[in-house]
Amino acid sequence: MAKNQKLVNSFLFAGAFLIASLLFSSCGEETSTIPGVSHEVPFALGITDNSGGTHNGASLLYVTFGDNAKSDATHVKSVRTNSPPDIDGSVDGVWSNAPASNVACAPMSGNNNIKTATLKSLHTASDIYFLVSWVDPTGTKNTRRHRYSYRNGTWSENDENEDRVFFMWDIAGAGDGRGTFKDAGCMVACHGEMHPTRGKADFWHWKATRTDPVSYADDQYGDSSGRGNDDGSGAYDDNGELPVPDYQAPNDPGANAPFLYLNVPGKPKAVPYSSRGWKNGDELAAYVNKIPSGSRGDVYAKGKYNDATNTWTVEFKRALNTGHPDDAVITTP
Length: 333
Description:
Layout: H1 2-29, E1 39-48, E2 55-65, E3 75-80, E4 101-104, E5 106-109, E6 116-123, E7 127-135, E8 148-151, E9 154-157, E10 164-170, E11 175-176, E12 179-180, H2 181-184, E13 200-207, E14 218-223, E15 226-229, E16 236-238, E17 247-248, E18 260-261, E19 271-272, E20 283-284, E21 287-289, E22 300-306, E23 311-319
Parallel strand pairs: 2-3, 3-6, 18-21
Antiparallel strand pairs: 1-2, 1-10, 2-5, 4-6, 6-7, 7-23, 8-9, 8-20, 10-13, 11-12, 13-14, 14-15, 16-21, 17-19, 22-23
């Protein structure tokens, strides 16, 4: 009898241990569904106006997750959704579910007079989305970077740049001798040497001329060796080197197409350049747009410019975890 009781007690103990283990394990797996759990991930924001270097922005912001997550001038609350927006530069109704953060934009490298940017964020189980809007201080939609013009038998390029917006994220302890990105933002992980001197950072770089026409941003990185492009091919190539371009629109000369495309679904394919038939004032795009590949093509982005209000609105989308070592992993609770 005593032997049987011992056996019963052993089974009861084992069963209790198993149940407790399962409950403990379950609690760990279900933290994302516990009301009030919050989490934040640091990032930086920069915006240019017809410039390659001069930009205003915010050195250290946070995207926040959870029911009780902060939403203010430095915290952008990301709201979970099952109906994500289309990445087309239009503000879909689902964006009304996300609170707006009005972020003060300070001079970071020169001063372009961009004062404020409005940010929103949404996420699904697999992807994160951002909506960024700002008023262009010069009232110009700069999408004509280095555009070629023809006169008296010669092509020349203009001195115009493009409007841009970029995000910066920490991958692996990015920073310099003054501190880390997580503590001090991009001022110690990008400014100074223009790249981290230790660790690694991730850049999402939307460019109004070079990436927007195919609805992408340039996915790039920075580390102690400098700044570079992620593995793969980008959303654009130079249209040759002057004095002779490589491509023209299929209905050139004289089409003055704002952009040229290679193998982009729904877009006319550029054809090899011919020197015949051009007239003074004809123009060509200085870049040929294409669908990016590999890790360099991880970030979708599309902008629209409102001529009445001089406002850019740009939408971004990227996987929370791309699986690529040159990308930051954005974790949710």
